[in-house]
Amino acid sequence: MDVAPTLATVDSLGLDRRLARWLVLANLVMLAFLAGLATLALQGSYRTHAQRAQATSENLATTLQQTIASELAQVDLALLNVRTSLRRSGQTSESTDPVVEAVLADQMRVLPVLDSLRIADASGLVRHGPGVAGAPVNMSNRLVFQRARDEASDSLQVSEPLQARISRKWVIAVVRRLERPDGSFDGVVYATLAVDHFQQILGAMDLGPQDAVTLRSTSLQLIARHSPLAAAQPVPVGNAVVSAELAAAVRANPASGSFMSVTPVDKVERLTAYRQVKPYPLMVLVGLGTEDFFSPWHEQRAQLLGLLLALTLAMAGGSVIALRSARRQTAASRALLAEARRSETLLRVACDGIHVLDRSGALVRCSDSFATMLDQAPRAMPGRNVRSWEAVMTDTELAERLRGIQVGETQRFETRHRRRDGSLIEVEVQSRAAEIDGRELIYCAARDITERKQMQAELAESAQRIRDLYDQAPCGYHSLDANGVFVHVNATSAAWLGLPASELIGQRRITDFFTDEGRDAFALNFPLLQATGRVQDLEFDLLSANGARRRVQISATAIYDDQGRFLMSRSVVHDITPLQEAQALRLAAVQLQAENRNLQASSRVQQAFLNNLSHELRTPLNAVLGLSRLLRSGTVAPGSPKHEEFLDLIGRSGQQLLGLIDTILQYSRAEAGKLPLLPERTELTSLVAELQAVFEEQLQARQQVLQVSIAPAVQSVMLDPLRLKQVLATYLANAIKFSPDQGVLQLRAQRDGDRGLRIEVEDHGIGIAGSDLSRIFMPFRQLSEGTAKRYAGVGIGLALARRIIESQGGSVGVRSREGQGSVFHLVLPDVV
User: Fold this and answer.
1) Separation between Cα atoms, residue 105 and residue 82, nearest integer Å
2) 132 FRET partner, CA 20 to 30 A, in 181, 451, 603, 626?
C-alpha cells in the first residue's frame, strides 16, 4: 500500500487546520486592536466634546451668576442706605415725615432697575413707597416678611417668585429688617424686581437652537427662562417641575454642579451647569443641547463603525480566501496587499492629523485628515518637508527638535501650521520616535486647537472685563488677611487711600488709614467678623496718604478654608460723605423750619397771654378806680351800708390784683430756678384743712362738696408746706371753677412706691379734650378762646404748679374725658 499520498493529505489537512486557527486568531487580534483604537479615538473625541460643552456651560453660568449677584448686591445696598438714613434721621416705619418718601425716591433714582421700593410697618401694613396711596396693602402673610420679623439675625431675605399686590406683576422681593432703638421689630424695607427684568438679562445671552438658560429659586421654583424653543412652549412662573437628575445634583451639591438630562419642559436632552447665586437663594442654570454639540461626534462614530464593519467583513472574506488558497502564493499575496490597503484607509480616516517624518523632516506618510487640516491634496503631501507648513520655529529650531527626539521618547508641544492659503491654525502636536527596519521615523499626531485657543482668549477677555468692573466700580472692594493686611484691593479703594495697589497688597494694614477712633472700632469688630462671618454698616473716617478725609461705610463677609480657618475678608466700602452732607443739610433745613414754627407759635401764645393778662388786670383795676371815684365824690355817704360794701369790693379787687402779680412773679422766679424751698415735717391733714377753710366760701356759694381722703401712711411728710398749698390751691380752684353747681370734688392722698406721696384732685366738670392734654401744663396756654372768655385766668397757674413740683424732683399729670371731668395729680418722691 502506497501511504505517501495519504500522509501528504494528512499533513495538508493539519496545515490547513493550523492555518485556519492562526487566521482566526489573527483576525480576532486585529479586530480587537482596531476596535480598541476606534474606541479610544471615540472616547477621546467624546471627552473633548463633553469637556468643551461643560466648560462653555460653566463659564456662561458663572458669568450669569456674577451678573445677577451684582444686581442683587446693588439692591441690598439700596435697602441698607434706606435703613441707615431712617436711623440717622430718627424715623420709624410709621413716621409720616416726607423725609422718608424722599429717601425712597433718591434710591429709586439711583437704581432704576427696581420695580418698587417700599416700607411696611411691624404689622405688615405698607406705609411708604410708590403706589401705596390707594387701598391699604398688608404683607404680613408673606413668608419673606415673616422671616424678617421672626429671625433676630440681620440677614437679607429674598422671596420666592410672587405676584405683587400693588402692581400685580410677578416679582422677586428683597427684604431688610427694620428695628427700633430698643432692638424691637419695626417693620421692613423691601424692593421688588420684576421677573421681566430677569427675563431681559437671560434674553441677552447668545444661545444655540436647543440651548436654554434658567433662573430658579433654591427650592427650584421657576423665575425666568430663555430658550429659542420657549416661544412655542412657555413655562409659567413658579413652576417647580424639574428632571430627577437636577434634583439629585442639587441635593448632592447645592452650590454648583453639572449633569446631563432630558428637560421635562421641552423634552430636549441638554448638558446643564448650575450655580447658586451666593449668598442669595437663587440658582442659574445653563443647558447646551447635546444634539447640536455632539453632532460632529455622532457623524465620526458612524463613520468609524461603518469602517470597522467593512473591515471585519473584508478580513473575514480574506481569511476564507486565504484558507482556500493556502497553497497558492499569489492569492495570499493579494490578500496581504488588500489588508495593507485597508490599513491605509483606516490611517486616512483618523480624526487627528497623523503624519510620519524622517530625521530630515521629510514627510513619509500622512492621514487624509492631516492633508485636510493643511488644505492640501493627500497625494501631494509625501516628500514635502515640515518647513513648508511650520510657521513658528526657524529651520535651526526645527532641526534641533527633530534630532532631539530620542527613540521611544514622546514629546508634546503647541505651534502653528500654515495652510495652503497662507492662513495659520493653532495645533497641538504629539510626536514619538521609533526605529523600523533600521530606519528612525518620527510618528506625529497633530490636533487643531484653534477653536480652543479662541475660547481661552475669550475667557481671558471676559476675565479682564470682570477685573475692570471690579477695579472701576463706584464703591471700594478689598480683602484682608487675619492680620488686617491687604490681600486684594480694587482701583477705587486704592485711589481713596492715595497709594497704588502694589504698595498696599501684602504691605499695609487697613488700620494705617484709620483715625484712633476707627482703630478702636476695627479692633472690636474684626474678631467679630472672623468669628461670625459677617459685619455690616460699620462707619469709619478714612485718612488717605495725601491727607484727604472721607466718611465710609464698610460691610464684610469672611472666607474660610475647608477646616473652617479664616482666610480673608470680602469687604465692600461705600463713600457716604456726600450722603452725610446732604442729610445734614436736609436735617438742618427741617430743624430750621421747626424752630421757625415754634417761634411763630410762641409769639402767638405770648400775644394771647398779654391780651388775657391785660383783661385780668384791667377788670379789678377798673373796679378800684370806679368805686374810688364814687366814694371821693360824696355820692355814697360814709358809714352807710353801701359805703362799706364799696370799700369791701375795693379791698377784694386789690387782693385779686396782688394775687395776679404775685403769681407772675413766682412763675418768673421758678423759671429762673430761684424759687426758695423750705421743707419741714408737715401734718398733711392740717394742711388740707387750712385749704378747705380758704375755699369754704366758694364751695358754699356754688353748693359744692369737697371730699378728703388721706391714707394713714402719709399723715406726716417732709416737704415745703407753702409750695404744696400753692399747688393744691391751683388744683382746687380749677376744680371749683370748671365743675357745675352742687358738684362733688375729691382730694385723695396716698403713698407712691416706698417713700413717695401721690395727691389727686378729681372733679366731674367739663373735662378736657384729648388733643388739649399735652399742653395743659404749658405756660400762657388756655384751652380755647371760648373757654378763656368764659373762665377767668391768665394761663400760668398749672405751669407754675408743674415748675414747683418738678423743682422738688416730682411730677404732675392729668387724665380726663371731655364732658365727664378730670383728675389732676402730683407725685413727690422721698417725702414719707
Assistant:
1) 10
2) 181
DSSP class of 159: P
| Residue 80: Cβ within 10 Å count | 21
* Residue 4 pLDDT class (50, 70, 90 cuts): very low
Q: Which of 33, 309, 311, 340 is nearest to 332 (CA)?
A: 340
β-pairing, 410-418 with 424-436?
antiparallel
Nearest by Cα to 571 from 470, 499, 472 = 470
**Strand partners of residue 175:** 157, 190
Edge-first strand listing for the sheet containing 269-276: 222-226, 212-217, 282-289, 269-276, 256-262
Q: How far is CA 507 from the centre of its chain?
A: 32
**Between the CA of residue 614 and those of 610, 631, 669, what are the distances in Å?**
6, 25, 21
Residue 51's pLDDT is: 79
Q: Which residues contact 213 (CB under 8 A, 6 or more apart)?
A: 60, 64, 202, 205, 207, 225, 226, 227, 284, 285, 286, 287
In 702-784, alpha helices (H): 721-737
DSSP secondary structure string, 40-77? HHHHHHHHHHHHHHHHHHHHHHHHHHHHHHHHHHHHHH
Distance CA(779)–CA(264), nearest Å, equals 78
Give the pairing of strands 170-179 and 212-217: unpaired
Judged by DSSP in three states, 281 sits in: coil
Of 577, 547, 570, 578, nearest in space to 490 by CA:
570
Tally of CA atoms within 13 A in the half-sphere of 176 that contains its CB: 23
Cell output for 125? 401694613
Which tens digit of pLDDT belongs to each residue from 357-412?
998 889 988 888 888 888 888 888 898 998 889 988 998 888 888 888 888 888 89
Indicate the helix (H) or strand (E) that contains 588.
helix 577-633
Report whether 793 contacts 667 (CB < 8 A).
Answer: no
166 φ, ψ (degrees, to nearest 5): -100, -55
Amino acid at 326: A
Cβ-count burial of 30 within 10 angstroms (0-12 exposed, 13-18 middle, 19+ buried)?
Answer: middle
Q: Which helix (H) or strand (E) holds 369?
A: helix 368-373
Instruction: List, for residues 755-790, the tens digit of each pLDDT value.
Output: 899 999 999 999 999 888 888 887 755 655 444 445
Strand-pairing partners, residue 193, are 172
Please, what is the Cα angle at 597 between 92 and 605, to 5 degrees? 120
Q: Which residues contact 647 (CB under 8 A, 6 or more apart)?
A: 631
Give the pLDDT band of residue 326 (cuts 50, 70, 90). low
Cell 515640515 found at:
386
